[in-house]
Design goal:
mainly beta; Jelly Rolls; 2 domains; seven-stranded antiparallel β-sheet
Amino acid sequence: MKPLYPIRFRPILKETIWGGNALRERFRKKAAAGALIGESWEISGMPDESSMVANGYLKGNALEEIAEVYMDELLGESVYHRYGTEFPLLIKIIDANDRLSIQVHPDDRLAEERHHAWGKTEMWYVIDAKPGAVIYTGFRKKITKEEYLDCLSGKRMEEIINATPVRAGDAFFIPAGMVHAIGAGVLLAEIQQTSDVTYRIFDWDRTDVSGKPREMHTALALDAINFSLDTSNLIRKEPELNKTVLLAESPYFHTSLITFDSPIIKDYSLTDSFIIYICTESMAIIECFGHSEELRAGETILVPASADSVTIIPRGRATLLEVFVPKRQK
């Protein structure tokens, strides 16, 4: 087989009622003029929505296809043993021109039981936020199911959910079971388990394009909500120039922030996972396997697990998110 290289994918764009124009205008995503694009799925292994390679000799192949061919060389031995050829992460860039519904995701056990799917633990990294923008995560205090249902029926969800004012550089870790929503005016990167199981709780009395209220999942959500999650899980860390700063870690993903103005050589010889870089500011060159790829703000690239080291070269002062799957603890 031919050797692997840093792999780019064609974004999968999702038009939504709450989306905006930032993905097209700021990040040059190829969407029709006037289309309200809420999500760009940067790397997806979702069934029937697998990302297509956009560069090199693998161009035109789906992520699931190359995973079946390259297996642990692409994914990492520990990742392959845990997930097989199923790509375990879904990477998105989200433009919330309007606020999203308040929702919750089930954990692995409940999602498997109900949907034969993975649960959904995720995190957000705020790329930009308009003045006054907030993110909703977790309850203001531990509450009972009865208190929650009373507020839900009375349309008083804002009274019990944390609304955190946000700025660029903020991050949030959102485990399965935590109620959450992105507020209006927020542009962010999302790292999550490969799952699209979402229980919608409250949608601000909004209607869809046909004027009908969107479906709610009140009963399903009730068993998924962790009523003891009473913190916002805000992560606010200052970048350290030319250093890697840990933002969030879980059994599903490990995410760090790299802000740099000089070349950096990253040693991944013991990581045993693919590496994902999401560029949030400026531009960088990604070099490995004797191959280089340009990565601009709003773009994402996948470095195969067989890369022992990667050189990243900034153009000016650049910011990247670095994501990989940690080894499973024994």
